[in-house]
Design brief:
CATH architecture of the largest domain: 3-Layer(aba) Sandwich
Protein name: HAD family hydrolase
CATH topology of the largest domain: Rossmann fold
Radius of gyration: 17 Å
CATH superfamily of the largest domain: HAD superfamily/HAD-like
Strand order of the largest sheet: 5-4-1-6-7-8
Number of domains: 2
Order of helices and strands: EEHHHHEHEHEHEHEHEH
Largest sheet: 6 strands, parallel
Keywords: Hydrolase
Structural class: alpha/beta
CATH class of the largest domain: Alpha Beta
Distance between the termini: 14 Å
Enzyme class: hydrolase
Organism: Enterocloster hominis
Shape: elongated
GO molecular function: hydrolase activity
Number of strands: 8
Length: 225
């Protein structure tokens, strides 16, 4: 029986691709580089902003990453002002969260996004208190970024749940590896930033095309009418 759902943020709970694209492009403007597309950003994201910038710089011609150090310092300030740009919950997410609450299933968010910006997105879209716990990147506290299982295990300990009681949901190969590394059941969602083929390669317990698929799956596992 599932007693807790842990959600990735970007591409799973919220569509934040336009905020990310805008922040990357405003950063690249400093060196007169071309603008990156939404489709490019969908591939660049998932492993934290430093890896995002590395991929964007390489794609725009900075193969030696000469601007990487400066970009890493510049991006967080730009992103602070852009992190809510056109960000919204995916269709069906509110209903899924309502279902979980009604059935006393705990909810948490685990993102590789900087922790303050994770809070900005979650509270800006869902309000305060919608989730039991919300965590962004916390490597300064010794918790490694996804796909390390550290974040999932830390949330499990705080929420008082065991591995067999947890369902982890995400939209990228990083998320699928996170779930597998944490040894928890995993759901790949196709409404986010990556395609079904990428998710299926990891054989998650469920591939969901809409949040209602997650509701049906949990009802079946937990024996909810």
């Amino acid at each position: 029986m599932y007693k807790c759902c842990i959600f990735d943020l970007d591409g799973t709970l919220v569509n934040s691709i336009y905020a990310i694209q805008r922040s990357v492009n405003l950063s690249l403007e400093k060196w007169g580089m071309r603008q990156v597309s939404v489709d490019e950003c969908r591939v660049f994201v998932g492993d934290g902003y430093k890896k995002l910038l590395e991929r964007a710089l390489e794609a725009c011609g900075d193969s030696k990453l000469e601007h990487y150090g400066e970009a890493v310092n510049l991006y967080p300030e730009i992103f602070k002002g852009c992190c809510m740009y056109r960000v919204k919950a995916y269709d069906g997410i509110m209903e899924l969260l309502d279902f979980l609450k009604e059935n006393h299933i705990k909810t948490a968010v685990l993102s590789n996004k900087p922790h303050p910006r994770t809070l900005d997105n979650v509270e800006g879209v869902f309000g305060k208190g919608r989730f039991d716990l919300v965590y962004g990147e916390r490597e300064d506290k010794g918790i490694r970024k996804k796909p390390s299982p550290d974040g999932v295990w830390a949330l499990m300990e705080e929420l008082g749940v065991d591995r067999e009681e947890v369902l982890y949901l995400g939209d990228t190969n990083t998320d699928m590896r996170t779930g597998k590394n944490a040894q928890v059941d995993t759901v790949g969602v196709t409404w986010g930033f990556r395609d079904r083929e990428e998710l299926e390669a990891f054989n998650p317990e469920l591939i969901a095309d809409h949040p209602v698929d997650v509701v049906r799956y949990i009802k079946d596992v937990n024996g909810i009418e």
